[in-house]
Specification:
about 280 residues; single chain; alpha/beta; about 10% strand; two-stranded parallel ribbon
Amino acid sequence: MASPKTAIGFIGLGMMGYPMAVNLREKMDPAATLLVCDVNKTMIDKFVKQVDGKGSIVVKNNGAEIAKEADTVVTMLPEGAHVETVYLDPSTDLLAGSKGSSWQPNLHVGSTPEIFPQVKAVLQHMGMRDNVFRCGEVGAGTAFKVINNYLSAITSVAASEAMNIAVKMGLDAKLLNDVINTSGGQCWVTSKNNPCPGVTPGAPAERNWEGGFRIELCTKVFKMGIALAEMVGAKTILSKPTLDGLQSACEDESCKGRDARVIYKWLGGTDPREKK
């Protein structure tokens, strides 16, 4: 089996996985090989073309093929069914081949202290070195991510409501956001991705909420947060109204497929730069 310094496997070139894999190939040792696999052949072709010249890329058909040649395997999969197929299918899964391990994202890792340095050595190429966290034993990383996404969904809705109130009052939305970001209401949404058009340069709200983290995915991971709360017996009061709003926005044709901050539009929010 190849050394993890010379061969790394990556499975899942979707919305989250694709840019991570690009970062990995661009930042890892040019002499190392990146083994990739995805069910979408169009994304495979696009990826191979985009990173051409950055180092060796080998396309594999399944997890078993990747695991036979890599000691370190990264998977970025959208839903539980995909995880089961990649890890548990008797003929093509990672375990059939070998033992696997589990833009600038935070990366939450559940692992033993002994294996974490090896995992971090790979993951740091997909985000920022200081943003790779060991959250505890196996499973803790997922819990950290689910809880973070739960909170992010709520703050997205809350920020959208606040900005909608402000715009309807005729207030200066940009100035309000500046004030919020030096006050108690500050959060990632107000700082980096304000839902109101004309506030955060380059944010999805500037292009009719195209791109970003789709509201359907936001709703899916928010449900995971609700399920986690129920599993551990944690009382929540914002989960139901937030979920109701997200699900309704998902069914709105003008919001489907757009960044989750499109909830601002679903609430009746408008572009404050447009003349009444």
